Input
Amino acid sequence: MAEIPYIAAIEQAIHQEMERDEHVLYFGQNIATSENDKFLQAFGSDRVRVTPISETAEIGMAVGAALAGMRPVVELYMAEFMLVAMDQVVNEAPRFRYMSGGQVKVPLVLKAGYGFTAGWAGQHTGSIYAMFTGVPGLKVAVPATAADAKGLMTTAIRDDNPVCFFHHYLLTLEPGEVPEGEHVVPFGEAAVRRSGGDVTIVATGWMVGKALAAAESLASEGIEAEVIDPRTLQPLDTATILTSVEKTGRVVLVDQATRHASFSAVIAAEIADEGFSSLKAPIKQVTSLDATVPYSEPMEAYVLPDEAKIAGAVHQVLGSAPVAA
Output
Protein backbone atom coordinates (compact mmCIF):
# COMPACT_ATOMS: atom_id res chain seq x y z
CA MET A 1 0.00 0.00 0.00
CA ALA A 2 1.12 3.54 -0.70
CA GLU A 3 -0.51 6.87 0.12
CA ILE A 4 -1.11 8.83 -3.08
CA PRO A 5 -3.61 11.50 -4.21
CA TYR A 6 -6.98 10.45 -5.63
CA ILE A 7 -6.13 11.75 -9.12
CA ALA A 8 -2.78 9.91 -9.11
CA ALA A 9 -4.63 6.68 -8.31
CA ILE A 10 -6.83 7.14 -11.38
CA GLU A 11 -3.83 7.85 -13.59
CA GLN A 12 -2.02 4.84 -12.14
CA ALA A 13 -4.92 2.58 -13.15
CA ILE A 14 -4.98 3.96 -16.69
CA HIS A 15 -1.20 3.62 -17.03
CA GLN A 16 -1.18 0.06 -15.74
CA GLU A 17 -4.03 -0.99 -18.01
CA MET A 18 -2.28 0.57 -21.01
CA GLU A 19 0.81 -1.46 -20.14
CA ARG A 20 -1.26 -4.62 -19.74
CA ASP A 21 -3.40 -4.25 -22.88
CA GLU A 22 -2.22 -2.59 -26.09
CA HIS A 23 -5.83 -2.00 -27.12
CA VAL A 24 -6.32 0.64 -24.40
CA LEU A 25 -6.24 4.18 -25.80
CA TYR A 26 -6.22 7.51 -23.95
CA PHE A 27 -7.25 10.80 -25.46
CA GLY A 28 -8.94 14.12 -24.84
CA GLN A 29 -8.76 17.82 -25.54
CA ASN A 30 -5.86 18.43 -23.14
CA ILE A 31 -4.08 15.10 -23.50
CA ALA A 32 -0.69 14.86 -25.23
CA THR A 33 -0.43 18.59 -25.89
CA SER A 34 3.36 18.52 -25.49
CA GLU A 35 6.15 15.99 -25.92
CA ASN A 36 6.57 16.01 -22.11
CA ASP A 37 3.20 14.31 -21.54
CA LYS A 38 4.05 11.19 -19.51
CA PHE A 39 1.42 9.05 -21.23
CA LEU A 40 2.62 10.16 -24.65
CA GLN A 41 6.21 9.36 -23.72
CA ALA A 42 5.24 5.92 -22.44
CA PHE A 43 2.81 4.80 -25.15
CA GLY A 44 3.32 6.99 -28.21
CA SER A 45 1.05 9.10 -30.38
CA ASP A 46 -0.88 6.16 -31.84
CA ARG A 47 -2.44 5.41 -28.45
CA VAL A 48 -2.35 8.82 -26.72
CA ARG A 49 -3.91 11.67 -28.68
CA VAL A 50 -5.15 15.21 -28.37
CA THR A 51 -8.62 15.65 -29.86
CA PRO A 52 -10.54 18.53 -31.41
CA ILE A 53 -12.39 20.85 -29.03
CA SER A 54 -15.59 18.94 -29.68
CA GLU A 55 -17.10 16.44 -27.26
CA THR A 56 -19.34 15.15 -30.04
CA ALA A 57 -16.24 14.40 -32.12
CA GLU A 58 -14.08 12.84 -29.39
CA ILE A 59 -16.86 10.66 -27.94
CA GLY A 60 -18.00 9.72 -31.45
CA MET A 61 -14.45 8.68 -32.31
CA ALA A 62 -14.25 6.69 -29.09
CA VAL A 63 -17.47 4.81 -29.86
CA GLY A 64 -16.10 3.95 -33.30
CA ALA A 65 -12.77 2.84 -31.86
CA ALA A 66 -14.54 0.67 -29.29
CA LEU A 67 -16.66 -0.98 -31.99
CA ALA A 68 -13.42 -1.70 -33.87
CA GLY A 69 -11.94 -3.56 -30.89
CA MET A 70 -10.08 -0.84 -28.99
CA ARG A 71 -10.67 0.24 -25.38
CA PRO A 72 -10.62 4.03 -25.35
CA VAL A 73 -10.56 6.19 -22.21
CA VAL A 74 -11.78 9.72 -22.94
CA GLU A 75 -10.72 12.56 -20.61
CA LEU A 76 -13.68 14.97 -20.48
CA TYR A 77 -12.73 17.02 -17.39
CA MET A 78 -16.26 18.25 -16.63
CA ALA A 79 -19.42 16.17 -16.66
CA GLU A 80 -21.33 19.07 -18.19
CA PHE A 81 -19.20 18.74 -21.32
CA MET A 82 -20.94 15.42 -21.96
CA LEU A 83 -24.24 17.23 -22.41
CA VAL A 84 -23.31 18.46 -25.89
CA ALA A 85 -22.68 14.86 -26.97
CA MET A 86 -25.70 13.14 -25.44
CA ASP A 87 -26.60 11.32 -28.66
CA GLN A 88 -23.23 9.54 -28.57
CA VAL A 89 -23.38 8.94 -24.80
CA VAL A 90 -27.02 7.87 -24.48
CA ASN A 91 -28.27 6.77 -27.88
CA GLU A 92 -25.21 5.21 -29.51
CA ALA A 93 -22.60 3.76 -27.13
CA PRO A 94 -25.02 1.89 -24.81
CA ARG A 95 -27.27 0.56 -27.59
CA PHE A 96 -25.07 -1.24 -30.09
CA ARG A 97 -24.25 -4.33 -28.04
CA TYR A 98 -27.94 -5.06 -27.42
CA MET A 99 -29.07 -4.11 -30.92
CA SER A 100 -26.43 -6.40 -32.47
CA GLY A 101 -27.45 -9.32 -30.28
CA GLY A 102 -24.07 -9.24 -28.59
CA GLN A 103 -22.11 -9.41 -31.85
CA VAL A 104 -20.25 -6.18 -31.02
CA LYS A 105 -18.84 -4.78 -27.79
CA VAL A 106 -18.45 -1.13 -26.81
CA PRO A 107 -15.66 -1.02 -24.18
CA LEU A 108 -15.44 2.71 -23.57
CA VAL A 109 -14.71 4.84 -20.49
CA LEU A 110 -15.96 8.42 -20.28
CA LYS A 111 -13.98 10.03 -17.44
CA ALA A 112 -15.53 13.24 -16.14
CA GLY A 113 -15.33 15.45 -13.07
CA TYR A 114 -18.47 16.64 -11.30
CA GLY A 115 -19.64 18.80 -8.40
CA PHE A 116 -16.82 21.33 -8.71
CA THR A 117 -18.27 23.95 -6.28
CA ALA A 118 -15.70 26.28 -4.63
CA GLY A 119 -16.81 29.17 -6.81
CA TRP A 120 -17.23 27.43 -10.17
CA ALA A 121 -20.79 28.76 -10.38
CA GLY A 122 -23.78 27.48 -12.31
CA GLN A 123 -22.47 25.70 -15.41
CA HIS A 124 -19.60 23.68 -13.92
CA THR A 125 -20.92 22.48 -10.57
CA GLY A 126 -23.56 19.93 -11.55
CA SER A 127 -23.81 16.49 -9.97
CA ILE A 128 -25.55 15.01 -12.99
CA TYR A 129 -24.57 11.34 -12.70
CA ALA A 130 -28.17 10.25 -12.01
CA MET A 131 -29.31 11.17 -15.52
CA PHE A 132 -27.03 8.46 -16.94
CA THR A 133 -28.09 5.67 -14.59
CA GLY A 134 -31.41 4.99 -16.31
CA VAL A 135 -29.86 4.21 -19.71
CA PRO A 136 -29.73 0.43 -20.26
CA GLY A 137 -26.24 -0.69 -21.23
CA LEU A 138 -24.48 2.26 -19.59
CA LYS A 139 -22.62 1.72 -16.32
CA VAL A 140 -21.91 4.48 -13.80
CA ALA A 141 -19.07 4.55 -11.25
CA VAL A 142 -18.67 7.24 -8.56
CA PRO A 143 -15.59 6.48 -6.43
CA ALA A 144 -15.22 8.19 -3.05
CA THR A 145 -11.68 7.10 -2.13
CA ALA A 146 -8.33 6.96 -3.85
CA ALA A 147 -8.25 3.16 -3.62
CA ASP A 148 -11.66 2.87 -5.23
CA ALA A 149 -10.72 5.45 -7.85
CA LYS A 150 -7.94 3.12 -8.97
CA GLY A 151 -9.89 -0.11 -8.60
CA LEU A 152 -13.05 1.10 -10.32
CA MET A 153 -11.10 2.65 -13.20
CA THR A 154 -9.36 -0.68 -13.76
CA THR A 155 -12.72 -2.45 -13.84
CA ALA A 156 -14.19 0.22 -16.11
CA ILE A 157 -11.43 -0.19 -18.69
CA ARG A 158 -11.83 -3.97 -18.70
CA ASP A 159 -15.63 -3.88 -19.00
CA ASP A 160 -17.11 -4.62 -22.43
CA ASN A 161 -19.79 -1.95 -21.95
CA PRO A 162 -19.51 1.85 -21.91
CA VAL A 163 -18.83 3.25 -18.44
CA CYS A 164 -19.33 6.79 -17.15
CA PHE A 165 -16.60 7.28 -14.54
CA PHE A 166 -17.44 10.33 -12.41
CA HIS A 167 -14.83 11.75 -10.04
CA HIS A 168 -15.40 14.69 -7.70
CA TYR A 169 -12.94 17.48 -8.29
CA LEU A 170 -12.70 18.37 -4.60
CA LEU A 171 -11.31 14.87 -4.08
CA THR A 172 -8.57 15.41 -6.71
CA LEU A 173 -5.69 15.92 -4.28
CA GLU A 174 -7.21 13.96 -1.39
CA PRO A 175 -4.62 11.35 -0.35
CA GLY A 176 -5.46 7.77 0.47
CA GLU A 177 -3.91 4.34 0.91
CA VAL A 178 -3.90 2.63 -2.49
CA PRO A 179 -2.79 -0.95 -3.25
CA GLU A 180 0.27 -1.11 -5.46
CA GLY A 181 0.19 -3.10 -8.67
CA GLU A 182 -3.05 -4.52 -10.02
CA HIS A 183 -6.12 -3.43 -8.04
CA VAL A 184 -9.64 -4.30 -9.17
CA VAL A 185 -12.88 -3.24 -7.45
CA PRO A 186 -15.92 -5.09 -8.84
CA PHE A 187 -18.92 -3.14 -10.04
CA GLY A 188 -22.12 -3.59 -8.06
CA GLU A 189 -20.49 -4.12 -4.65
CA ALA A 190 -21.14 -1.39 -2.08
CA ALA A 191 -18.71 -0.70 0.75
CA VAL A 192 -19.78 -0.38 4.38
CA ARG A 193 -17.52 2.48 5.46
CA ARG A 194 -18.71 2.48 9.07
CA SER A 195 -20.80 -0.01 11.04
CA GLY A 196 -23.66 1.00 13.30
CA GLY A 197 -27.05 -0.15 14.46
CA ASP A 198 -29.12 3.01 14.91
CA VAL A 199 -29.44 4.49 11.42
CA THR A 200 -28.27 3.77 7.87
CA ILE A 201 -26.64 6.62 5.94
CA VAL A 202 -26.13 5.99 2.22
CA ALA A 203 -23.90 8.61 0.58
CA THR A 204 -22.25 8.95 -2.83
CA GLY A 205 -18.92 10.39 -3.94
CA TRP A 206 -17.72 13.44 -2.03
CA MET A 207 -20.68 13.08 0.32
CA VAL A 208 -19.22 9.86 1.79
CA GLY A 209 -16.62 11.90 3.67
CA LYS A 210 -19.30 14.30 4.87
CA ALA A 211 -21.44 11.36 6.05
CA LEU A 212 -18.50 9.82 7.94
CA ALA A 213 -17.75 13.14 9.63
CA ALA A 214 -21.40 13.45 10.65
CA ALA A 215 -21.36 9.85 11.93
CA GLU A 216 -18.34 10.59 14.12
CA SER A 217 -20.10 13.62 15.56
CA LEU A 218 -23.25 11.59 16.20
CA ALA A 219 -21.22 8.90 17.94
CA SER A 220 -20.30 11.40 20.63
CA GLU A 221 -24.03 11.62 21.35
CA GLY A 222 -24.36 7.85 21.56
CA ILE A 223 -25.86 7.48 18.07
CA GLU A 224 -24.19 4.79 15.97
CA ALA A 225 -24.66 5.35 12.24
CA GLU A 226 -23.83 2.81 9.52
CA VAL A 227 -22.38 4.55 6.46
CA ILE A 228 -22.70 2.85 3.07
CA ASP A 229 -20.90 3.92 -0.11
CA PRO A 230 -22.55 2.35 -3.21
CA ARG A 231 -19.38 2.97 -5.30
CA THR A 232 -21.29 2.21 -8.49
CA LEU A 233 -24.79 3.52 -9.17
CA GLN A 234 -25.30 1.29 -12.19
CA PRO A 235 -25.17 -1.53 -11.26
CA LEU A 236 -26.44 -0.71 -7.75
CA ASP A 237 -25.87 -3.05 -4.81
CA THR A 238 -29.36 -2.87 -3.31
CA ALA A 239 -28.78 -6.01 -1.23
CA THR A 240 -26.16 -4.38 1.03
CA ILE A 241 -28.37 -1.32 1.51
CA LEU A 242 -31.46 -3.38 2.32
CA THR A 243 -29.52 -5.56 4.78
CA SER A 244 -28.45 -2.44 6.64
CA VAL A 245 -31.97 -0.99 6.60
CA GLU A 246 -33.31 -4.25 8.01
CA LYS A 247 -30.83 -3.88 10.88
CA THR A 248 -31.36 -0.18 11.66
CA GLY A 249 -34.89 0.57 10.47
CA ARG A 250 -33.98 4.18 9.75
CA VAL A 251 -32.43 5.70 6.62
CA VAL A 252 -30.80 8.99 5.61
CA LEU A 253 -29.74 9.34 1.97
CA VAL A 254 -27.07 11.91 1.07
CA ASP A 255 -26.55 13.14 -2.48
CA GLN A 256 -24.90 16.32 -3.77
CA ALA A 257 -27.32 16.49 -6.71
CA THR A 258 -30.45 18.58 -6.50
CA ARG A 259 -33.33 16.74 -4.84
CA HIS A 260 -35.37 16.05 -7.95
CA ALA A 261 -32.36 15.02 -10.04
CA SER A 262 -30.69 12.95 -7.33
CA PHE A 263 -29.78 9.29 -7.37
CA SER A 264 -30.84 9.18 -3.74
CA ALA A 265 -34.42 9.34 -5.03
CA VAL A 266 -33.80 6.04 -6.86
CA ILE A 267 -32.34 4.46 -3.71
CA ALA A 268 -35.34 5.71 -1.73
CA ALA A 269 -37.67 4.07 -4.24
CA GLU A 270 -35.79 0.76 -4.01
CA ILE A 271 -35.97 0.81 -0.21
CA ALA A 272 -39.68 1.69 -0.28
CA ASP A 273 -40.34 -1.10 -2.79
CA GLU A 274 -38.26 -3.89 -1.23
CA GLY A 275 -37.63 -2.86 2.39
CA PHE A 276 -40.68 -0.91 3.49
CA SER A 277 -41.56 -3.35 6.26
CA SER A 278 -38.16 -2.71 7.88
CA LEU A 279 -38.68 1.03 8.21
CA LYS A 280 -39.42 2.54 11.62
CA ALA A 281 -39.48 6.10 10.25
CA PRO A 282 -39.86 7.81 6.86
CA ILE A 283 -36.80 7.90 4.60
CA LYS A 284 -35.01 11.25 4.79
CA GLN A 285 -33.03 12.71 1.87
CA VAL A 286 -30.26 15.26 2.30
CA THR A 287 -29.53 16.80 -1.10
CA SER A 288 -28.70 20.12 -2.69
CA LEU A 289 -31.61 22.48 -2.88
CA ASP A 290 -33.46 22.62 -6.20
CA ALA A 291 -31.44 25.63 -7.32
CA THR A 292 -28.51 26.41 -9.59
CA VAL A 293 -25.31 26.41 -7.53
CA PRO A 294 -24.45 30.09 -6.97
CA TYR A 295 -21.02 31.69 -7.33
CA SER A 296 -21.19 33.29 -3.88
CA GLU A 297 -19.48 31.05 -1.31
CA PRO A 298 -22.00 31.61 1.53
CA MET A 299 -24.90 30.97 -0.86
CA GLU A 300 -23.15 27.90 -2.25
CA ALA A 301 -22.80 26.52 1.28
CA TYR A 302 -26.49 27.20 1.88
CA VAL A 303 -27.47 25.17 -1.19
CA LEU A 304 -25.16 22.14 -0.66
CA PRO A 305 -25.40 19.27 1.84
CA ASP A 306 -22.96 19.28 4.75
CA GLU A 307 -22.22 17.45 8.01
CA ALA A 308 -24.67 19.51 10.06
CA LYS A 309 -27.53 18.87 7.62
CA ILE A 310 -26.78 15.14 7.66
CA ALA A 311 -26.70 15.04 11.45
CA GLY A 312 -29.94 17.00 11.55
CA ALA A 313 -31.62 14.49 9.26
CA VAL A 314 -30.44 11.63 11.49
CA HIS A 315 -31.99 13.34 14.50
CA GLN A 316 -35.23 13.67 12.56
CA VAL A 317 -35.48 9.97 11.68
CA LEU A 318 -34.62 9.07 15.25
CA GLY A 319 -37.30 11.42 16.54
CA SER A 320 -34.80 13.49 18.47
CA ALA A 321 -34.80 16.65 16.36
CA PRO A 322 -35.35 19.90 18.26
CA VAL A 323 -38.83 21.38 17.98
CA ALA A 324 -38.89 24.69 16.12
CA ALA A 325 -40.05 27.65 18.20
Summary: The chain has a mean pLDDT of 93. The chain has two domains: 2-178, 191-318.
